[in-house]
Amino acid sequence: MPVATAPASSALTLTGNRLPRWAPWASVAGSALVAWGVLVLTGEHTATTVAALTALLHAVALTSVSRYVEGPRRATDRLATTLVTVAFLLALVPLVSLLWTVVSRGAVLFSGTFLTTDMVGVFGDMTSGGVAHAIVGTLMVTLTATLISVPIGLLTAIYLVEYGRGPLAKGITFFVDVMTGIPSIVAGLFAFALFTLLMGPAYRSGLMGAVALAVLMTPVVIRSVEEMLRLVPNELREASYALGVPKWLTILKVVLRTSVAGIVTGVMLAIARVIGETAPLLITVGMITRTNWDVFEGRMATLPVFAYSQYQQGGVGVDRAWAAALTLILIVMLLNLVARGISRAFRPKTGR
Amino acid sequence: MSKRIDVENLDVYYGDFLAVEGVSMAIEPRSVTALIGPSGCGKSTFLRTLNRMHEVIPGARVEGRAVMDGQDLYAPEVDPVQVRRQVGMVFQRPNPFPTMSIADNVLAGVRLNNKRISKGDAADTVERSLRGANLWNEVKDRLDKPGSSLSGGQQQRLCIARAIAVEPQVLLMDEPCSALDPISTLAIEDLMSELKNDYTIVIVTHNMQQAARVSDRTAFFNIAGTGQPGKLIEMADTPTMFSSPSVPATEDYISGRFG
C-alpha cells in the first residue's frame, strides 16, 4: 500500500503516516475476495459464511496494516470503527429481513380491495375477503386504549415531576416500574375477569380489549412523559413563577407547552407498543367477520388476532395473515409520520 | 410605582439548614441596592426571599419579617403569586421561553396569566417594555422571531423587558451580567440607572466595580465557614462602603485581600 512519507520521527513532530482514505474499502474488497475464494475451495460458500469471514479478515488486515503504518493508537481506532460498523450491520440484518419477508409475502394478497372488504361470506379456499373490519377494530380498540391511558399517564407524570414528594411518589414510581413488566396475557386476563364480574360472563366488547391494552400502555406513557417533563429546565418554571404566574398555569402553559413534542413522541411509542398485541385481544375482543364500529358492544376483529387466526387456518389464510401483518406495519408507520409532523410543529423554536 | 422594603430579622432555611441568619435592612425606593459578598454567603438566597421565590424549592422556608409598604410579605394571608406580580425578577442566566416569539416573551406575564389584551394594547406594551429595556431598536423588525434567536446580552435584556412589562414595584436582579460580555454588561448597567427612576432595584453582583458604578447603597454579606449561616455584615451608602467601611472584613473583601 502506498504510504505518505513523513519526516523522520523526532521528539516534537506533529505529523505522522496516514493510510489513504480508500484503504478501508480496499481492505473490505480484498477480504471479500479472499473469503469467497477460500470458501469456494472448501465448498462452504454461503452468503453468511462469506460475510462472516470477510468481516474477520478485514478487521485483522486493516488493524495490522494500520498498526504497522500509523501506530497503535490509530490501529485501535480502526479496530473499534470496524467492530462498531459490524455490530450496526448485524443489527440491521433482522430488521431488513423482517421488512423484506413481510413486504414480499404480504404483497401476494395486498390490494385496495383487501383493505376495503371484510370477511363476510368468505369460505374455504376463496381468495376474496379482506381486513377492513380488522383495521376498524384495531383503530377503535387502540384509540379507546389511548383515550383511557393518556389522561391517566399524563396526570400521573405531572404529579410525579411537579408535586410528588416522599413515600407516595416513590411508591407510584415503583409500581409503574412493576407494571411495565406485566406480561400482556396477564393484562388480558385482568380485563376479562374485570368485565366478567361487572357485566356477566357472555359480555364481549372492544372496550374490554381497550382496558387490557390501557393496562399495558399506561406505564409506558407515564415513564416517557415523566422523562420529557424532567427535561424542561427549572429556569423556565422559575421565570414563569417570577412573573406571578400560578403553578397550575405554569405547568399547563410553560412545562407542557415546552415538552409537547416529546410527549407526542412518547405517546406514539406507547401506541406502537400495544397496537400489535395479540394475546390480550384474543381472549377479550375475539374475532368476527364483519365490521363493528361499536366499542361498547360485541366482538371486534383486530389485525393481530386476524393474522393469527388466518395463519392457523392455513392455505390462503397464510397469505391473508401476511397481508394483514403488512397492513399493521403500514398503520404504525403512518402513525409515526403523523406524530413526527405534530412534534415538528410544536418543537421549541431555535436558530436565528 | 416603587415601594420600599424593610427586612427585620430574617432567617432563611433550606430544610433544617440555616442558610442566612438575622438579616435586617431597609431597601429604599427609586434606588439601586447592591448585595455583594463571597460565593455561598446567601446573597442570592436572601434576594429570592424578597419575592417569595425561595419557597419554590422543596423544604425551603423563612422566619422573620419583610415588610413592603406596611404589608408583611410573609403574613399568612399573603398570596405568593400576588407578591411575585409586584416584585419582578431577572435571573443569572437569560431564560426566555423557547416556545415563544420575542413579542410573546415580553407579553408572557399577561398571556400566561390567561388575561385578555387587545392587539393595540399588546403592541403598546411590547414597544414600551422593549424601549424600557433598550432592546427595541435591535428587534423591532423581527418581533415574531423566537426569543432564543437573540444573542446572550439581548436575551437578558429581553428578560428585563419581560419583567418590567407587568409593571412591578420592585425589580430583583440575580447577577444579571455574569454571563455577558463587557458591552452587554454596559448596556444593562445603563439600563439600571434609567430604571431606578421608576423602580426599586436590588441587584446581586460579584463584580465590585459594577456595584460601585450602579448602586446607591451596598450591603456586604459574609460567611464564617462552610455549614455556617451567611450574615449581613454591614450596609451603607455605596461611596461610604467603598471608601471607608466600618468593618475590616468589608474592606478586605472590597480591596481583594479576602481569605
UniProtKB/TrEMBL annotation, chain A:
KW Zinc-finger (keyword) present: no
Alphabetical list of InterPro entries matching this protein: MetI-like (IPR000515), MetI-like_sf (IPR035906), Phosphate_PstA (IPR005672), Phosphate_transprt_permease (IPR051408)
CDD domains: TM_PBP2
Membrane-topology annotation of the record: Multi-pass membrane protein
Transmembrane segments: 22-41, 47-69, 81-103, 131-160, 172-196, 202-222, 254-275, 321-339
Residue ranges of every copy of the ABC transmembrane type-1 domain listed in the record: 135-339
Domain of life assignment: Bacteria
Entry keyword set: Cell membrane, Membrane, Phosphate transport, Transmembrane, Transmembrane helix, Transport
Compartment(s) where it occurs, according to its Swiss-Prot or TrEMBL record: Cell membrane
The protein's role, per its UniProt record: Part of the binding-protein-dependent transport system for phosphate; probably responsible for the translocation of the substrate across the membrane.
PANTHER family in alphabetical order: PHOSPHATE TRANSPORT SYSTEM PERMEASE PROTEIN PSTA
Family according to the record: Belongs to the binding-protein-dependent transport system permease family. CysTW subfamily.
NCBIfam families referenced in this protein's UniProt entry, alphabetically: 3a0107s02c
Protein name (Swiss-Prot/TrEMBL): Phosphate transport system permease protein PstA
Species assigned in the record: Flavimobilis rhizosphaerae
UniProtKB/TrEMBL annotation, chain B:
Keyword Cytoplasm found: no
Domain of life: Bacteria
Gene Ontology molecular functions: ATP binding
Alphabetized Pfam families for the sequence: ABC_tran
Nucleotide-binding found in the keyword field: yes
Domain ABC transporter: start-end pairs: 5-248
UniProt keyword terms in alphabetical order: ATP-binding, Nucleotide-binding, Translocase, Transport
PANTHER family xrefs: ABC TRANSPORTER I FAMILY MEMBER 17
UniProt name for this protein: Phosphate ABC transporter ATP-binding protein
Native species: Flavimobilis rhizosphaerae
Taxonomy of the source species: Bacteria, Bacillati, Actinomycetota, Actinomycetes, Micrococcales
